[in-house]
Write a structure and sequence with these properties.
With 142 residues, the chain is α/β, with parallel strands linked by helices. It has one domain: DsrEFH-like (Hypothetical Protein Ychn, Chain: A, 3-Layer(aba) Sandwich). It is built from 4 helices and 7 strands.
Length: 142
């Protein structure tokens, strides 16, 4: 345990911004891998999906035609790593003709609420996302 944590110091908040479509570049997969590694080391991790990054969370991804492994099921494991804050920008969804119904159903079990399943995805406006970003210690953009 770090000295900061032993002395009651603040845990740094890490925000990973996902701006790219899930396939065609390595950014989306690399971001997911970095998030899982960070969460394994008890970082306070959250993700934001903006621009074409919102496509990373869409239901029914089929990559057979492009010959790339579909990594979208890995998002379902985020709750097991205590990654429970996934912010999706409403305007990015709307600009791409998507709604919340087009997104995967990602949940986590809340140990403070008798292990009740709760949604991980939080739809936020651009202004709300700016507020969330201002609260972060580290922001990494992919």
């Amino acid at each position: 345990m770090s000295e900061d944590m032993e002395d009651g110091g603040d845990i740094k908040k890490f925000m990973y911004m996902n701006r790219k479509a899930p396939y065609g570049t390595i950014y989306a997969l690399e971001a997911l891998e970095v998030v899982l590694i960070g969460a394994a080391f008890d970082q306070d991790v959250s993700l934001a999906f903006v621009d074409d990054g919102v496509f990373q969370l869409t239901k029914g991804q089929d990559t057979a035609g492009i010959g790339i492994k579909n990594f979208s099921p890995a998002f379902k494991a985020l709750g097991d790593y205590d990654v429970t804050k996934l912010y999706v920008e409403k305007e990015s969804l709307e600009e791409r003709g998507l709604t919340a119904d087009d997104l995967m159903d990602l949940v986590y079990e809340d140990e403070d609420d008798d292990w009740a399943e709760k949604p991980s995805i939080r739809l936020v406006s651009r202004d709300e996302l700016k507020t969330v970003l201002a609260e972060q210690d580290v922001i990494m953009s992919f």
